[in-house]
Amino acid sequence: MFDNRPLSDWMPITAKEVEARGWENLDVILISGDAYVDHPAFGSAVIGRILESEGLRVALVPQPNWKDDLRDFKKFGKPNLFFGVTSGCMDSMVNHYTASKRKRSTDAYTPGGQASFRPDYAVKVYSRILKNLYPDVPVLIGGIEASLRRVTHYDYWADELFPNILEMSNADLLVYGMGEMPLREIVRLLKKGVPFSSLKTIPQTAVQINEDERIPTNKNWVDLELSSHETCQTDKRSFAANFKHIEQESNKVNARRLLQKTGNKTLVINPPYPPMTEDQIDTSFDLPYTRMPHPKYNKRGSVPAYEMIRFSINMHRGCFGGCSFCTISAHQGKFVSSRSEKSIMKEVEAVTQMPDFKGNISDLGGPSANMYKMKGKVQEICDRCVAPSCIHPVICSNLDTSHKPLTEIYKKVDEHPDVKKAFVSSGIRYDLLVKSYNKNADDSLDEYMEQLTTKHVCGRLKVAPEHTSDATLKTMRKPSFKHFHEFKKKFDEINKKHGLNQPLIPYFISSHPGSTEEEMANLAAETKAMGFRLEQVQDFTPTPMTVATVIYYTGLHPYTLKPCYTAITKDEKKDQHQFFFWYKNENKSKLRKRLNKMDRPDLVEKLLEHAPKAAEKKEKGQRVGKRKSNQFGPKKKGKSKRRKG
Q1: Which candidate, 20, 159, 171, 576, has a CA 20 to 30 Å from the CA of 253?
Q2: Architecture of the domain made up of 311-460+469-478
Q3: pLDDT, tens digit, for every residue of 263-295?
């Protein structure tokens, strides 16, 4: 797995490695819930490399044991500047539990896929341990768990409303979103001698101010006070109303500073930095990563998450889709930051030089594979925008949706002499590729579709229509399913033209807010008629900082404050989920009864008796691959359990 690099090419994770560098003390000590993989897709590696580039002495403690005498937290002693804490690349609760709250038996971010190497609510646990051991040393928290829990939030696993994570963890400072820019500013000020306790006005950070302290002023910022944590606990409507402001300010170019009282403290969330420029994002990706796990793990087995991305290239960050169940824009932002062609090709070259590279790049992608270089045509219009999505309910007329830059990158990578195939495994936004929905479409769309379909599909293409009901899709902020039909027709035509047999793999979600059981039955019938046999699908998981989670908890849409039905109970969710598996004999009797109860004999015939020609041609049908959960009306009387406040 590893080449002959010296151990010093990795950041130190043991006391011996620190001693080997001749360091008597450290400036920053990082604590992470993930194993240490020195790759730009792993946040702790990125943060560590940035701190190193600022001239700091940095060590990393990956997956410390929190159950013993805490020796892992003590082995490096006190850092000169601060401890940095992250749960890893995932919220620890999403990492640990399924949508039905069953404990997972594996962990993709641990060598050998072993589970139980991090605690539940890892940021809180790690930070409290450090504050108990070293009360005088500042603790800075960041990463997706800290970022998405930065205000009062609903926790699905505890089924209650939690205060902001600074309050829960006793940490001193929170960096939200992608942390490169605020981290560099923090280091710059600390080097100048500014005390850590005075770092209260750095963009894209959050702090708590005691009631006897004055909230720091910034003449360029306007404040917006949210309903307090205590008010949210007793009034779900206030909690829902808060979220509209939180989402809008997270995605504005000129955002307001958010304030929220929690007990005798005030949470202060400073506005985010502008989207990273090309030079800034290139700098982050061009740091000297080894692109491999630390050699210490060689005997413990591979890290599954690393195996998935080891030969992949991430070309941009951010997503302007604004899907109501997704956390990408809440963490990475709505505006897309794209790398330069030079930086991307530099990484392609690095991948081809890896010792076990066989010629195939597994993914040329991003959060959504086909948003590279897309931005507003007139920046001043974007500067005034408060919409959470640039492509729903329609594609913004100011959005440049040209796929030409992306197609050119694909061609450039194809020309590399050591690359046999470069696949696109990230999910694509199919709605950008159909002219019935994308009114900004130009000829680059057809060229991209041809290039993608003929050269970059690894057997099958992943897309995410998510549902077939227009009402539910509106709640999801997704386009009408009729546009998916158009996309499938276009994709099939290109395949036929070139003699290819590549199926589409569509993703769907059950039990999403707004979705009724009857709509799930319609979904099953319509996808069956298209020849799909759905095998592994997604049940909605409420995760912090999404519209859908707010609806799930409150029963209200945060933008309208009107009721929105949501499947809440275990039985309600199971009833919806079963319609994905209409073809299983053990489900047919129950589905027939439920359809008859709905007075839908037409669906009984379509779903349980009628076999469409497309399905007859394929004994096993087209299957939907499983994906990782990054997601997430008045409730039915007598069925939905009462929630804790």
Answers
A1: 171
A2: 2-Layer Sandwich (3.30)
A3: 999 999 999 999 999 999 999 999 999 999 999
